[in-house]
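Issue 218. Parser rejects a valid record. Input:
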Amino acid sequence: MGSGAWLQLLLTLGALWGIGAKETVLGILGEATLLRIPRELQERTEQFGEASWKKIIKEPLTKKFLVKISGGNHSEFQPERMRFREQNFSLEILNTSRDDQRLYEYSVNKGSEEEVWQIQLEVFEPVADPSIRILHRESSNGSCSLALNCSSERGDNVSYSWDSRDNGTGGICSGNGSVLRLSFSLRGAAFGCVCTARNPVSSRRAAFDAAQCGAEQRGVPRERTELVVPLAVLGAIIVIILIIVAIVTFRARRDPDPSQATPDPSQATPTSATIYAQVQRVQKPKGTVPSATPPSCTTIYTAATGPPPAPDGAPRSPAGSPTPRGRPPLSQEPTTVYASVTLPVA
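Output the parser choked on:
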């Protein structure tokens, strides 16, 4: 029995049982989808001239007319969403959406009989380009162990598979699922693995070069702290110097209190400010419990001295000139400022 005879039998049984023949069509989200009918139904439509496209809203009773064909003319009920093609009586959904995932029905009225063809539309979002990320990497004794994860950000019902980029790896890259585990010698790492992400309407691929085992990869970052401590200490010293300059400048330019008596210039001592900087390096090896005893510290200090006295023995003013009589010199009380910096070292 040929295919035409089988189709005719299905249509006949469908007309008798009221369910019609049925097929499944896969549509791509956001793209056009074409719903076709068999050649036999096209001939029946040309012969009897009465047919229609309907969409099943609620099975089995509620149906919505999309196109009506009568006497060689047709009427479209959703022209902004669907387009009817007269040459083969097919129906095109212009911009397929999730809501279009329904059961569609094409029927030909033959007077006292009706032939029905049903199409189940399944809508899928296509797969986006996948990316490969290293979950685990270990290199020792000239060998490498890897755990790779392949993922796609978009797509419905996505499945993953792995294969070799060429045929010289002995199937080391073969596998199903998003995760692939590898173990190989670095001397023979001249091969690549390809991940394929697919669903019923699309597929995308991404490649991984095994030579990347010894390189820095996203997802397995390595901490680089060689320059952190020196730069931090340098920054702390710069801050301390700036504090010294600010204190000395403020004290040198502040007007003295006239009520204070002028001290003996011969016993005046330069104003000084001592700055202490405490730099503490804390090292926390991986996998060890921090010690309860605080680590040793290194103290860095420096001193700033105010302007020296004038050659004639009189104290200087803030601008460097001798202090006018009747006005006391700058305060000689030392000022101490402490700065503490604690920096972790990986």
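Fixed in the parser; the record now loads. The longest helix spans residues 228-253.
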